[in-house]
From TrEMBL:
Domain of life assignment: Bacteria
Gene3D superfamilies referenced in this protein's UniProt entry, alphabetically: IHF-like DNA-binding proteins (4.10.520.10)
Keyword DNA-binding in record: yes
Classification via InterPro entries: Hist_DNA-bd, Histone-like_DNA-bd_CS, IHF-like_DNA-bd_dom_sf
Keyword annotations: DNA condensation, DNA-binding
A GO term, aspect molecular function: DNA binding
Protein name, entry field: DNA-binding protein
Family listed: Belongs to the bacterial histone-like protein family.
Length: 94
């Protein structure tokens, strides 16, 4: 049986660890993710020691090929969120 790890689960975990209210724990978790998102919107990266780095990846426009028709198509530039796991996290998951 898979356990669902989501913001609700994380908020409950914070609430139990800090003996705070459910509302305070939810605000803390939401605030944390909001700050990470704000930093990424600015193009900054967020490093969490032992866990990883959240950053923005910019991909240039390029020419591609439609696999169905073989026709050349123009792929537009793209900005996407990216996460790179830290060495400690990679080793823990092995």
């Amino acid at each position: 049986m898979a356990i669902k790890y989501d913001k609700k689960w994380l908020s409950e975990w914070v609430m139990n660890k800090t003996s705070s209210t459910k509302k305070a724990a939810q605000e803390l978790v939401d605030g944390l993710f909001d700050e990470i998102a704000k930093a990424m919107v600015k193009g900054e990266q967020v490093k969490v020691a032992g866990f990883g780095v959240f950053k923005v990846s910019r991909r240039a426009a390029r020419e591609g090929i439609n696999p169905r028709t073989g026709e050349k198509i123009q792929i537009p530039a793209k900005v996407a969120p990216k996460f790179r796991a830290a060495k400690q996290l990679k080793e823990a998951v092995k």
